[in-house]
Amino acid sequence: MNNNNKIFQFKLVLLGEAAVGKSSLVLRFVRGHFLDYQESTIGAAFLAQTVCLNDTTVKFEIWDTAGQERYHTLAPMYYRGAQAAIVVYDIRSEDSFERAIKWVKELQRQGSPNIVIALAGNKLDLAAKRRVETAEAQQYAEENGLLFMETSAKTSQNVNELFVEIAKKLPKTPTTRPGSAQTQSPPPLPTSTTIL
Amino acid sequence: MSSKETFRKYGIEIYIDSNDKVILNHKDLKLSIHPFFFKITLSLQSKKYISNSNNNSKKYQRDTHNLIIDDAGIAVPLNQSIFDIFARSRYLSSLEHENLTQFIQVEPSKKHHDQIYIISEDYSNSLSKLIEKQAKLSKFITQDEITSISYQILKALSFLHYNKLTHRNLSIENIKFDKNNIVKLSNYGLYYLSNNGENVSFPIGNLLYLSPESILTEHKGSSNPKSDVWALGCILLHLVLGFCLWQDNNPKIVISRILHLSGLETSQQFNCDTNTFEENLEFKDNSNNNNVEEGDISNLKINQLNNKNMIKFLDSIGKFKQEEISGIGFQSLDSQLQEFIRYCLIPNPIDRPDSETLLDHPFFKGVKDSDPTRDQWLLKPMGKCESLPDDLTSLNIQDILTRDKIKSHYDIFSPSEIYYLWKEILHGDIEKELVLQGFVKPSPSVHKLPLFVPVKRSLTDSSTNLLSDNNIPQINNNNNEDNNIDTPNIIKSKDSILYNNDQICMINIDQILVKLEKSYQSKEQLNYEQLNGTTKIQMETIEMKILLLKEYHKLLYDYQYGDPTQSQPQIIRLARYSIPSLLRGEIWAAILGVNDNDAKQIFYSINLDQKGPNDKQFELDIPRCHQYHPILSSEQGHIQLFRVLKAWSVYNIEYGCYWQGLDSVCATFVVHHFYNESKAFASLKAFVDKYLKILYVPNNFSALSEIMLVYKQLLSYHDPEVSVHLNTIQFEPDLYAIPWFITIFAHILPIDKIETLWDTILLGPSSLPYFIAISIMIQFRQFILTTNSETCLKILPKITSLDVDVCVRDALDKFNHTPLSTTLSKSVPNTDPELWWMQEIPIEKRKRELFPRISIQDLVNNQSNSKILDIRSPESYKQSHYPQSININPKQTKVTPILEQCRNKPIIVIAPSTDEEGIEFCNQLVQWKFKFVSLLNGGMDSIQHSGFDL
Question: Contact A42/B743, CB-based, under 8 Å?
Answer without folding.
Answer: yes
